[in-house]
Please model this.
Amino acid sequence: MPRLTWGTPGEKFYETGISQAVLFVGSSPGVPWIGVTSIEKASSGGGARPYYLDGKKYLNVSESEEFEATINALNSPLEFAPCDGITSVQNGLFVTGQSRKSFGLSYKTIVGNDIDKSDHGYKIHIVYNALAAPSNKSNTSVSGSVNVVANSWKITSMAPSITGLKPTAYLMIDSRYTDPDILLEVEDILYGTEADPSRLPTPDELIALFTP
Model:
């Protein structure tokens, strides 16, 4: 085998940006979420759990991991209201403090490198069964400059079952390694076509698409 090298042209990758966020609530078609400024991924669990016998570590097991994130956005689509505990009565009247609905989410990030820059590729991130927690919002007095009110929601998730794999609420598709025909099919499902509305595919459906 050839000797290892570092700094090969085209192999200096980076990830940036966020775009094309789509919200999925229940069985309703997906809707664009315009105004998402960032999504901060996190997780709980996943740490190592050691076991000892006669004073010596004999086993180190990885614990289950749960997907969490924080969504930051300038606004949210009307369809997100039930996910934020807001119910529309009628004619512009909204009631807050209601039970929050879970939702699905997809969004893109850019993958760049030292040759193609930000045109190299992208990742599609898909989140299932997310539940938003209440967040603080500050409205200030109008002054000479406009202070846009930022919105932020911390979300937790409940992982759906996946055949043959451990449950997870977060899947990621990398365009650099995906067959273009499969990638197009996935995007037709997520973003819709002239004939079919946007929808959230199940993890098993995605795995079936990627399986020869």
